[in-house]
Design a protein that fits this description.
single chain, alpha/beta, 7-stranded parallel β-sheet, 10 helices, globular, binds 6-O-phosphono-beta-D-glucopyranose
């Protein structure tokens, strides 16, 4: 990485920050679609940023996904923030165990020397189960913790990629395709104007809860995710974007 790259990144960061109306944008070199190391670097950058804002006794809610897995891999203890609690942002969304928020949350907490609570809900959740499960005392308790989150760290996915990865039904796939969904985050699928096309029924953090949380950090890179990042930020509920060079360069082409 040369000085010229650094200043080039600074210009890009500023451009993205202004256009998407964000508080902070950080770009790491490379394209995470192509190299695992780039995704790791994305994870490390997210950990550095998290440690720069985290204070003792705070609650951090996290989502699943491979980008968040990279964040968990790179997690380390903070030298100032102690007693932090890690929770999954939402219940099961259809992900494989290694990509699930619960798995990532436990790993992050261990590496940060923090505490964690997990959220066990069937996946997918029927309307009846949903109504009774939110009355369970143990579920109520963690839902309370989730709502108290000070920081949220989450991934952003390409809508169709995520629906297929989660083995969504034909009906849901059709809804997503005919509604022209572009991005997905927290189990919500958005079109290119930021409109919600479909929402996975599960407990935990809802989109509207995000506006009350001061630090909502999105971690998403790779050229293939540029459109998704753009679509997700149309409804603008996150304040920080940690991305890579390839996504950033593709993103500004669309501005
Ligand atoms: C999921 C998050 O687990 O990860 C989603 O809940 C996000 O909001 C997805 O779209 C992104 O996955 P990845 O593997 O591309 O980081």
């Amino acid at each position: 990485l040369f000085m010229s790259d650094l200043s080039e990144f600074n210009v890009l960061e500023q451009q993205i920050k202004d256009t998407l109306n964000l508080e902070h944008v950080i770009i790491t070199p490379g394209n995470s679609d192509e190299h695992a190391l780039v995704k790791q670097e994305l994870g490390k950058t997210a950990v550095d940023y998290l440690h720069s804002i985290l204070v003792s006794n705070q609650t951090v809610a996290v989502t699943g996904g491979t980008s968040m897995t990279a964040v968990a891999e790179m997690m380390r203890p903070s030298n100032h923030a102690v007693n932090c609690l890690f929770v999954p942002a939402r219940g099961g969304l259809g992900e494989r165990v290694e990509n699930q928020a619960n798995t990532i949350c436990a790993e992050m907490a261990k590496k940060a020397n923090g505490d964690y609570r997990l959220l066990y809900v069937p996946d997918p959740l029927s309307e009846d189960t949903y109504q009774s499960i939110i009355e369970e005392p143990s579920v109520k308790e963690i839902l309370h913790n989730i709502r108290q989150a000070n920081v949220v760290v989450h991934g952003i996915g390409d809508a169709l990629t995520m629906a297929k990865r989660r083995k969504a039904s034909e009906e849901v796939l059709h809804k997503i395709q005919s509604g022209n969904a572009v991005s997905e985050a927290f189990g919500y699928y958005f079109d290119d104007t930021g409109e919600v096309i479909h929402k996975v029924r599960t407990v935990g953090m809802q989109l509207e809860d995000l506006s009350k949380i001061k630090s909502v950090i999105a971690v998403a890179g790779g050229k293939s995710k540029a459109k998704a990042i753009h679509s997700y930020f149309k409804q603008g509920k996150s304040s920080v974007l940690i991305t890579d060079e390839a996504a950033a360069k593709e993103l500004i082409k669309g501005f």
